[in-house]
Amino acid sequence: MSRSRTALALGMAAAGALSLASVSATAAPLPLAGSTTVTPAGHAFSATLSGKATLKAGSVTVTCSVSVSTGTVPAAPGNHNAAGPVSSPISPPTYSSCTASLPGVTPTVTTSGAWTVSMQNGSPVTATMGVPVGGLVVKTTGLATCTVTAAPTAPAGVAGTWANGAPSTLTFTNASVPVKVTGGFGCPTSATTSTFNAVYRVSDTTDPAQQITVGP
Asked: Alpha carbon of 171 to those of 124, 127, 157, 161, 162: distances in Å?
């Protein structure tokens, strides 16, 4: 290639790089979250487990067939956020009728503290369950004595999705939850996260003829 053509090629490459850098430097910021409205304002609701909930840490899976939480949609105008999610306090979910994947092991799940659930309208509608520090503890007895503490050092958000319906549903699919595991032989003490799976049916308990819905 001649010296003039080489110079031209280098010049075009430099111009392209400069243009790309300029575009990157002036790129528009990510859009803000859209508006969210949860209705009916001020209505109480109950979230009841449909099927089974599982919490897996390392090679150990705890499965529960009963879980319930209750809460209240914020009263107007708190049930609307023009640029983000709407959050509601909920009771610590209860978990019972639980089994462990390890033979000869019996799990017990306890919950405490100030839990929340927040909804962000979109496609799909996203939901985040807020777990306070140490808000969920799984203890096992029998052949393995273990303690699994969720959100061990800081509050955690568990990501899920919401679907309007009759009733509406709140779904968690392989949601990541930070944990700390202590115990002896058979306990997954190296695990720092767990995966949570559950589907909840959410019903309006103030007026059962209505549905809890999330929109813009």
From this structure: 11, 8, 14, 5, 6
The C-alpha atoms of residue 146 and residue 65 are separated, in whole angstroms, by: 21
C-alpha dihedral sign at 135, 138, 139, 144: negative
Judge contact between 160 and 195, C-beta under 8 A: no
> Shortest CA distance to 122 belongs to which of 162, 168, 157, 169?
162
* Total residue count of the chain as it appears in this document: 216
Query: What's the rounded Cα separation, in Å, for the pair 122 and 206?
Result: 26
| CA-wise closest residue to 184 among 141, 152, 153 | 141
User: pLDDT tens across 51-77, in order?
Assistant: 999 999 998 999 999 999 999 999 999
Q: CA-CA-CA-CA torsion for 115, 94, 110, 55, nearest 10 degrees?
A: -90
Q: What is the pLDDT of residues 119-146, one digit of tens each?
A: 999 999 999 999 999 999 999 999 999 9
Q: Give me 132's structure tokens.
A: 């306070």
